[in-house]
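At your convenience, could you comment on the folded chain following this short note?
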Amino acid sequence: FPRTSFLYIAVSLALIAWLIGAMRSGQIALRQNWLLWSLAGYIAILLISALAGGHFERSFFSSHERMTGILTFIYAFAWFVMAGSVFQTKDWLRVFRAVTVTGALIAIFSFLSIGGLNLESFAFMEHGGGILANSTFAGIYYLFAFLVSVFLLLKDSSRGWRWAYVGSLLLIGLNPDIFNFSVWQGAHSLSDIFGSPSLLLGQARASAISIGIGVLAMGVTYLIHRLKISIKRKGLLLGLGGLIIVLATLAFVGSATMQKGFGHNFLQKQKDFARPLVWRQGLQAFADKPIFGYGPNNFNYAFQDNYSPEVAFLEANNWFDKAHNSTFAVLVETGVVGALAVILVFLLAVWYAFRWYRKKEDVAPLLVVVVLLAHFIQTQTSFNTSLSIFLVFVLLAYLSAQSEDAPKLYKVAGQAKRVACAVGVVVVTWVMISLAILPAVTNRRVITAMASGKFENRLEMYESLPSLKGGFSQMLYAVTENYINALFNNLDQFDNPVAKEKIRNEFGVILDLYESKLAENNDDFRYLINYVNFIHVSRLFGVDRMERAGQLLERAEELSTAHPQLYWLSALQARYLGDSGLALAEIEKAVAMNETITERDSLLGQTPTISLTIREFLLRNKDNPGKIYYQVTEL
C-alpha cells in the first residue's frame, strides 16, 4: 500500500489551509532566498531529466513500492515553501518532536516483530522495520529520529520532553534494526564481540554505523562550538571536518567500485558482493548519458544497459531498480547537471547555517547540517525513500527559516487575487484526489482482489490496473507471480471444465494487459522476459501466443545478451515449439556463463544451478512429445 499517499494528503490539506488563511487575512507570507530558488531549480532539472530520459511517467510517479518520483519532490517542496515561510520556533519544536516520537513508536514495533521478540501477532512484519516495510526503510528513518533527538536534548529546555528524548534514543538505539537483538539473548560472548564489534550491529547495518558517525560528528561540532576561539577559526575547523567526512565517504565508495582498497575489503567481509558491481555499472551508465542522465527512477534501464552477468550469479533473484548509492543515483538519473544542483543546495544549506551561527552563536543549525551529512553517509549503501526526501526538505526548511531573509508579505486584495487563491484551493484539492486518494483506493482494491478467491473480483482488479500511474509494471509482476504460484499449488482444485474455462479467460485478460503496455515498455528487458514467461504458462491452459513470445525474445536479445534469463527462456521457447536441438544450443549459452565466474564459487547464487537444471530438464525430455513446462522462479 502506498503509505506516501498520506503525506500527499497531509501536505495538500496544509496548503489548502494556507491559501484559505491568505484569503481571510488578505495577505500571504513567502520567504524568498537562494535556498528556495536552488530547490526550485533542482526540481526543474528533475523534470528536464525525466523528459530527456524518455520515461516521463515512471520518473514523475515512480512505483507504488517506492513513491520517490518527481511528484514526491514537488509535494516536499510545497511543504518547504509553506513551512519555511510561516513556521515559528515553537512550530519547529513540534515538528521535530513529532519526528522523534514517531521514530520511538516504530522502534517499539521492531522490538515486537521479527528480529526482536518475534511475537506471532506481529509475524506479518516479516522483513523487519516495524511498520516501514523492511529494516532498510526503517533504518533510514531511525537516523533522522535519533539525531533529531540528540539535537533536541541540546535545544529543548522542557525537562519532561528531555526525558522523552532519552527514552526515544534508547528505543531507537537498542531496537533490533539498529542493535543486534541476539546479543541480549546471550548468542555472543564478550570475547566474540570484542573480536568482531560488527556483531553489535542490527539488521540495518549501514544506518547503525551512520548513526554512530552522526553522534560523533555532533559531539565534535558541539565541542568546537564551546572552544574559546574566533568564529572564523571555528568555521575553518568545522569546514575541514565536514570536508574530511565527505572525502572519506567518497573514497570508500570509489574503493568499492574499483574493487580494491579499504571500501572493497570492508564490503567483502560483509559478504556484500553485488553492490560494488552495480556501482561499477552505474559509473558506466553515467559515461553513457553524462549531461541529464537516464531520468529520475530510471536506474533499471541503466542497469540493463550495462549489465554484468556476475550480478545474476551473486544475486540470482535481484533486479536492481536502485543504485543503492545516492552518489551514483544522482549521477546516473540526473547527470552532471543534477549532481551540481544537489551540491549547490547543500552548500547553500551550510552557508545559511553558518551565517546564523555567526550572528546568534546558536549551534542548532550546524547540528542540522550534521544530520544531512550523516544521511549522505547512510545512503552510500542504500537509497532515498519518500520519507527521507520529506525529512531532508523539513531540515532544509528549518535552515531557510533561520536565514536573515524575512518573509515577504504579499497582499491578497481585490477580486482577481482572491479568485487566484480560490483557484489554487481547487487545483490542490483536485491534485490530492486524483494523485493521492484515488490511486491509494485503487491500490487497496488491487491488493484485496489479489487475495480474493473470486474470479469476478480479480477481473475487476485487472481492469483497474492500467490506472496505476507509474506503478503498472511492478503491480503486474506481483499479480502474475502470485497467480501462477497459487494456480500451481492448487491444480487439483481446478481440474474441471468450468474452472479451466475461467482460467483460460483470465490468462487472456492478463496477456492483454501485458500487450496494452508493451509500446511503453518495449525497451524494458525485465518487462519483456516476464511477459514471455507468462505466455509460456498460458500455453498449458490452451492460450497460444507463442509466436508473440518469439518476437518478444528477439526484442530482448536486441537489448542485451548479458542476461542468463534470456537464454533460459529462449531454450524453453524452442523446446515448447518442438525444436530440441535449438533448445539445447540456447541453454548452452547460459551454461557457458557459469565458466566466466570462477573467483567465488562457494558464494554463487542459484543462477548456475538453474542453467544446469534447465539443461538437464531439456535432455531428459528431448524425445517427449507431450506438453511440458519448466517453472522458472528466479526471473
Remarks:
- The chain has two domains: 27-411, 444-620.
